[in-house]
Design brief:
The structure is a single chain. By secondary structure, this protein is an alpha/beta fold. The chain folds into two domains: about 180 residues, D-Maltodextrin-Binding Protein, domain 2 (3-Layer(aba) Sandwich); about 210 residues, Periplasmic binding protein-like II (D-Maltodextrin-Binding Protein, domain 2). About 45% of the residues lie in helices and about 15% in strands. It is built from 19 helices and twelve strands. The chain starts with 8 loop residues before the first helix and ends with a helix.
Amino acid sequence: MKRFPRMTAAALAFTLLLSITGCGASDGKTHLTFQIWDVAQRDGMQAICDAYTAQHPEVEIEVQVTSWGEYWTKLEAAGESNTMPDIFWMHTDQILYYADFGILADVTDLYADEDPNYYQNHFSEISIGNASGSDGRLYGVPKDKDNVVLVYNKEMFDAAGVAYPDENWTWDDMISASAQIYEKTGKYGYMAYNDDQMGYWSFVYQAGGCILTEDKTRAGFDQPGTRKGMEFYVGLQDYEWCPDQSYFAETAPGTAFFSGIGSMYIEGNWELMNKCVSFPDMNGKWDIAPMPKCPDPVSGDGRATISNGLCYSTAAHGKTRDIALDVIKFFGTEEAQLLASSYGAAISAYNGTEQPYFDAFDKAGYDINVPILMDQFAYGVQNVNNAAKPKWKSPVLDELNKVYSGQQSLDSALDNMQNIIDTETAKKLADN
């Protein structure tokens, strides 16, 4: 097995928190750890664990939650020291990295005995892609699927006399509404901050561009559609109704929105229930709409939304590997995915298990038009990813920050972003 780059002593110390490996205990049970990073999903994950252990009383599963940043620091250290948790979430940004190093168990044939085409029959192509390694094998069982939407403040729209956004909205409508809201209320319009999935990526694909070529071997920042999308998105900051990036360094768009400072921003569906719970006084005062479309794309119909999704994984080696594989096999069933979806924190990846997610909002009395999320999956674009992404993700955003701060032109940034991705991708391909 390939080895990770050597970790620092401090990083390795983190493994102590992850090293409770499943083993037989004095109670005769096998105790497994299940690592996640989102506290809002703890209850849903515990529910599917309880459903498994109800059928297998000889097993106990402890759901452990840590923050996003710590999660990956600890997991890499655990991979280096061969002390991986028994079960854990894997993100699209990282799966190729871990799979290529031989850290993750290959689950391609997990359901082969009952259905050789299980994944293809029950999960979308995007969900399967998000769980696949560079070799096309699966290294996780699809957990959920998501996309990003336009969040808007109904009261601000009403005060400005602007109709709510709908499926016919274009970039021009978003600009016009932002200007009117700012003029009539003094509140910010659409808040465009420097991010990829929650920022410019969807706009690039709406314009007919791409971040990576189809074969994922080079960047697409030299493509006309990409330039069109980038020019539009970066140009939004030039309007007085859009905060600059120095503002977002202190205040996230979601914070500004729910503080009554701005009228629109992009949010992922995985955050919607959490926002409803966290801001009950805002119920009925905000809603979601489809992503506005490009009115004149270089190619395509102008519609796109980045679609991502997590998967359940286990380590390639370890004392509890076989039991952990059985657990995540259950997690990929209709029963488990219906149960997870019912908590409203994420839309389960298994086809046909989405409705409980939407029902959760109705049952809680939250007035949010969540069904539009399903409509958007029809034109979802798989989360941008290749094996070199951990190396180029941050440097690309850094280049864009230099544009926002006036340190370089967009032309220079696009050239640099192209070079960064192409260089890191070539290095990765050469290493493999």
